Amino acid sequence: MVMATRAPIDLRVNTLKSDPEKAGRALEGVKARQMPELKNGFRIPAADSIERGEAVEAIPAYSKGWVEVQDMGSQIAAAASCAAPGEQVLDYCAGGGGKTIAMAAMMENKGQIFAHDIDGRRLSALIPRIERAAIRNVQLRHPKENASIEDLTSAMDLVMIDAPCTGVGTWRRKPDSKWRVQPNALEKRIQDQAMILRTACNYVKPGGRLVYVTCSFLMEENEDQFASFLADRTDFKAEDAAEAAIKSGQLTEVGAKLVRKCRRPDGSVRLTPRTAGTDGFYMAVMRRAG
């Protein structure tokens, strides 16, 4: 039933340009309240079903780059990366760049993030977001420019995989998408995810981290992929994704309690609208031997 309810609008304060106190004052007019789980998270309550929701683009704080739209689950997934100032990071499936810009803020614009995606159109959409957020440490490796990433092999402190998936975890925001799911879509996504995991992991340096994320709560796309990968690549070991998110410093004590509650037996974390009040998200953290 919770998947049929209207979702709130979640925002992340861009700490490169603002702070929670300053952003909070600017967001009072749209009734945004700071989330108890995240130090930099705000939530605009869902509008009544007969009302039209607030257009985020019309909020001055958004136009100024003080806040970004990002579901709480996605913010927690970015936190699990523990991206730190000075690191070398590859966002392998960057897409529109939500986690790219979240990690850039965590890194305080220090170090380097290489944003890569096979869909050049989606990657291009990241450019204005980078500019609005005053980000200086992101380099696009764009397919239209034949920009290879082979020079990054075994050199990254962190590789983030925001894997293509069925997207079932976002159906409360995009209810019509469930009717557009094609036959055999799950099987295709499972194949894509396995291929991406086994390719992207080669960019992690010895001792580096690999983070696997989906916006799904299906075991086939999540725990099963995680277990299969670890069985194939014995040079990677699972780490506790809940503790990684907590270590990032992005969560409050309430948030720490939440992710620990949602931790799976294998150390990964699965969030759902029912258990966490987020979209459906899954995150797993691995470290390469060395």
Describe the structure.
The chain is an alpha/beta fold and 290 residues long. The protein is 30% helix and 21% strand. The chain has 11 helices and 12 strands. It has helices spanning 20-26, 60-63, 72-80, 98-106, 120-124, 126-132, 185-200, 223-232, 241-247, 253-261, 273-276; strands at residues 9-13, 33-34, 41-44, 67-69, 88-91, 112-116, 138-141, 156-162, 204-214, 236-239, 269-271, 281-288. Strands 5, 6, 7, 8, 9, 10, 11 and 12 form an 8-stranded mixed β-sheet that branches. The chain has a 4-stranded antiparallel β-sheet with strand order 2-3-1-4. The longest helix has 16 residues, at 185-200.
Features:
290 residues, Alpha-Beta Plaits, Rossmann fold, four-stranded antiparallel sheet, 30% helix
Number of strands: 12
Output the radius of gyration. 18 Å
Q: Alpha-carbon distance between the termini?
A: 46 Å
Largest sheet, if any?
8 strands, mixed
Helix count, DSSP H or I runs of 4 or more residues: 11
CATH fold-level name of the largest domain: Rossmann fold
Number of domains: 2
CATH architecture of the largest domain: 3-Layer(aba) Sandwich
Return the CATH class of the largest domain.
Alpha Beta
> What percent strand?
15-25%
CATH superfamily of the largest domain, called what?
Answer: Vaccinia Virus protein VP39
Summing up helix and strand content along with how strands pair, one would put the structural category as alpha/beta
Oligomer: single chain
